[in-house]
TrEMBL record, chain A:
TM annotation in the entry: 6-25, 32-56, 88-107, 119-138, 144-163, 184-206, 212-233, 254-272, 284-305, 312-334, 340-358, 379-401, 421-441, 462-479, 510-532, 610-630
Protein known as: NADH-quinone oxidoreductase subunit L
Source organism of the structure: Dyadobacter endophyticus
Limits of the NADH-Ubiquinone oxidoreductase (complex I) chain 5 N-terminal domain: 72-122
One Pfam family this sequence matches: Proton_antipo_N
From TrEMBL, chain B:
Signal peptide: none
Function: NDH-1 shuttles electrons from NADH, via FMN and iron-sulfur (Fe-S) centers, to quinones in the respiratory chain. The immediate electron acceptor for the enzyme in this species is believed to be a menaquinone. Couples the redox reaction to proton translocation (for every two electrons transferred, four hydrogen ions are translocated across the cytoplasmic membrane), and thus conserves the redox energy in a proton gradient.
Lineage: Bacteria, Pseudomonadati, Bacteroidota, Cytophagia, Cytophagales
Protein name, UniProt field: NADH-quinone oxidoreductase subunit K
Species in which this protein is naturally found: Dyadobacter endophyticus
Domain of life: Bacteria
Family classification: Belongs to the complex I subunit 4L family.
Membrane topology, as annotated: Multi-pass membrane protein
Known partners and oligomeric status: NDH-1 is composed of 14 different subunits. Subunits NuoA, H, J, K, L, M, N constitute the membrane sector of the complex.
């Protein structure tokens, strides 16, 4: 089996697609743009299946495929190589990126059909897929950082895709700036890793981590936290979560691919990839778990109050990534990656379906103006329902249940777990079910408020159906320990990610599953009761001043935007205003002014009078001779 | 033939001539006279060379004087040609009127 030599094709195909579309896309017909744009990703997905299949069949002997393409640069003893490495962890990510990416590209060929910048859209999307593949396939942290920045750039380009509206441009700039804060911290983290380990190659760091760092020492904690800060920025976790809801200004396929399925989980990938460092620092893991728990609760409560369907999904994305971080923090590495994969399926599905709804309702985002779509858009309804039950983690029949239940179970029982984290996660599950039900009822039940335009075509519904199938059935590859005990996925990941260390003397897993199921059903009932059965109750709740204030607070995303505006933006604008005529600039204008004055002075000696010149010569000669004689 | 004139006196004369030349260049307004004064300065330096050559009994001084003569001839021809051109263009030989290249 020599399939590994085709590994480079996986990122190269999207890159090729990007170059073709960026250079000559303007002169290509729409059919060709769609063929190149979606075709490159589909081919890449195909290569992934072939290489992945070969990789899995050759598993026991060789758990990592590496392919060095060329040396990027060498400085002294340090050499950065362009090396791709495929192991089980990156295989999961590559699979999700190319497979879901291909479906979303096919969907986009129909969704963006009417847009005049068809080629620019696909060029940016292809570049994104390339960067994301570089990120997950990189064998050293430097190359990973290249991909990391590449996805940030593409995210910026695609959020601001409809750049003619200033708000979209602002959203793009906000996303870029906020993630940049995390990236700067991550860059410092990379410097620290290099300073202490002397290498940036992931496998070397992993193999020598316990030699390089003392467990629980200050340096390893700081390094881990700096790397984590990078992940928090990209994955929109507390306190850098503010950019993701605004990022919904981009087209829906962008939200599905970048801001739900792939890029925002880069932080999860980073922490999972560097798990050897995090395993050495209990403090860092605790911070990861607490941030995850806090984020999932905060974003969940915010999602309850939103009326824009895409913003609900955005906050639920933040919340679900919070679950992944919680799992990473308690040491349940495989559970986090499992939830990442399931989440990628159902969240991409939900965004694509939401995009189809918005498109059919003439760009109506407000859920309160939708309603009654159940019978009018049956395909979208059934697929959206499949995604929603997975998001709400309806017991047994949805994939989301298996992945989220695992996280809930580990958040108590794993080594780093605690009852508090579990309680927060359980509350989060209840809230998730409530806002999912609310979203379903407002969108699909009740009376129709907006006229429906054209219905989505085949190219849009087929990806929805495929993703719906995965959202329901993908969970069966990993069943809980107490029933089925079928752990295909975690066994698959164990060559890279360690087993979850468990506490002793913990209550039965059955109890946890029962409570998780009750939380989900309770949440669904709450949503059903308030939004379907007794909608009048909402109005009576509105009478309560405290609740209204709480609602406003949650609606604004816990006033984080206002806080950052007061704390950072306004002081910065203030300083910028008083320093309008740049203080440091004074030095340079001073130098140039002095030069100008001296030029004027000297140019007056250039009188044009020959006799004065000779006079000058003579006086000069006499002076020099005089000095010579005197000395 | 033995002369009783010492080298110092000749060099002093050369210096005097040179100073005269410089003063001429500076105070004269007419370009032709300025050129003449330059010739006087050249010859003064030539005289100094000859005096020095005879003082130390070396032929170099006279060799240098021949060079200076040749150079002076060339310089005068070019200088006169330039003066002719200036006169054609400005209808004047007054150096004070020719201050175009100022500032």
């Amino acid at each position: 089996m020599l399939m590994d030599k085709y590994l480079w094709l996986i990122p190269a195909l999207p890159l090729g697609g990007f170059f073709i579309l960026a250079l000559i896309g303007k002169n290509m017909s729409r059919t060709w743009v769609a063929t190149v744009g979606a075709g490159s990703i589909c081919l890449s997905a195909l290569v992934t299946f072939v290489v992945g299949g070969a990789f899995l069949s050759g598993m026991p002997e060789n758990t990592v495929y590496t392919q060095t393409l060329w040396t990027w640069f060498e400085v002294g003893e340090f050499s950065a190589k362009i090396t791709l490495s495929l192991d089980v962890l990156s295989l999961v990510f590559v699979f999700v990126i190319t497979f879901i990416g291909a479906l979303i590209h096919i969907y986009s060929t129909a969704f963006m059909e009417a847009d005049r910048d068809y080629a620019r859209f696909f060029a940016s999307m292809n570049l994104f897929v390339f960067s994301m593949l570089v990120l997950v396939l990189a064998d050293n942290l430097l190359l990973m950082y290249l991909g990391w920045e590449g996805v940030g750039l593409c995210s910026y380009l695609l959020i601001g895709f409809w750049y003619e509206q200033p708000t979209n441009g602002n959203a793009a700039r906000k996303a870029f700036t906020v993630t940049r804060i995390g990236d700067a911290a991550m860059a410092i983290g990379l410097f620290m890793v290099f300073q202490q380990a002397g290498t940036l190659v992931v496998s070397d760091i992993g193999a020598n981590a316990s030699v390089i760092w003392q467990p629980n020492s200050a340096t390893v904690t700081i390094t881990a936290l700096l790397l984590l800060a990078g992940g928090l920025g990209k994955s929109a976790q507390l306190p850098l979560q503010t950019w993701l809801p605004d990022a919904m200004a981009g087209p829906s396929p962008v939200s599905a691919l970048i801001h739900a399925a792939t890029m925002v989980t880069a932080g999860v990938y980073l922490v999972a990839r560097m798990h050897t460092i995090f395993a050495l620092s209990e403090t860092a893991r605790l911070v990861v778990a607490i941030i995850g728990a806090a984020t999932l609760l905060l974003a969940g409560l915010t999602a309850l109050t939103q009326y824009d369907i895409k913003r609900v999904l955005a906050y639920s994305t933040i919340s679900q990534i919070g679950y992944m971080f919680l799992a990473l923090g308690v040491g349940a590495w495989t559970a986090a990656v499992f939830h990442f994969m399931i989440h990628a399926f159902f969240k991409a599905l939900l965004f694509l379906a939401a995009g189809a709804i918005i498109e059919s309702l003439h760009h109506e985002h407000n859920m309160f103006k939708m309603g009654g779509l159940k019978d009018k858009m049956p395909v979208v309804f059934w697929t959206f329902l499949a995604g929603a039950i997975s998001l709400a983690a309806v017991p047994l029949i949805s994939a989301g249940f298996y992945s989220k239940d695992q996280i809930l179970w580990y958040s108590w029982s794993a080594d780093g777990g605690s009852p508090v984290l579990w309680a927060v996660a359980l509350a989060g599950a209840l809230i998730t079910a409530t806002y999912t039900t609310r979203m379903m009822i407002l969108t699909f039940w009740g009376e129709s408020h907006t006229h429906i335009g054209h219905l989505p075509g085949k190219r849009m519904t087929v990806p929805l159906v495929v993703l719906a199938v995965f959202s329901v059935f993908a969970g069966f590859i990993e069943l809980p320990h107490n029933f089925g005990h079928f752990t295909l996925f975690s066994d698959f990941l164990h060559p890279v990610l360690p087993e979850t260390a468990m506490q002793e003397n913990i209550p039965s897993e059955w109890l946890f599953q029962l409570l998780a199921a009750l939380a989900t059903l309770g949440g669904i009932f709450l949503g059903y009761y308030y939004y379907y059965q007794q909608p009048a109750r909402i109005a009576s709740l509105r009478q309560n001043g405290l609740l209204v204030r709480l609602y406003r607070f949650w609606f604004s995303g816990w006033a984080f935007d206002a806080l950052y505006d007061r704390m950072l933006v306004r002081p910065f604008v203030f300083i910028a205003r008083i320093n309008k005529s740049d203080i440091t600039d004074k030095l340079y204008t001073g130098i140039s002014g002095m030069t100008g004055e001296m030029y004027k002075l000297l140019s007056r000696t250039q009188s044009g009078s020959l006799r004065w010149y000779i006079m000058g010569l003579v006086v000069g000669a006499i002076l020099i001779l005089g000095i010579q004689i005197m000395l | 033939m033995k002369t009783s004139v010492s080298a110092e006196v000749v060099v002093l004369l050369a210096g005097l001539l040179f100073a005269l030349g410089i003063v001429g260049v500076i105070i004269r307004k007419n370009i032709v006279f300025m050129l003449l004064s330059v010739e006087i300065m050249l010859n003064a330096s030539g005289l100094a060379f000859v005096a020095a050559g005879s003082r130390w009994g070396q032929p170099d001084g006279q060799v240098m004087f021949v060079f200076i003569l040749a150079m002076a001839a060339a310089e005068v021809s070019i200088g006169l040609a330039l003066i002719l051109q200036i006169y054609h263009q400005h209808k004047s030989l007054d150096i004070d009127n020719l201050k175009e290249m100022n500032g």
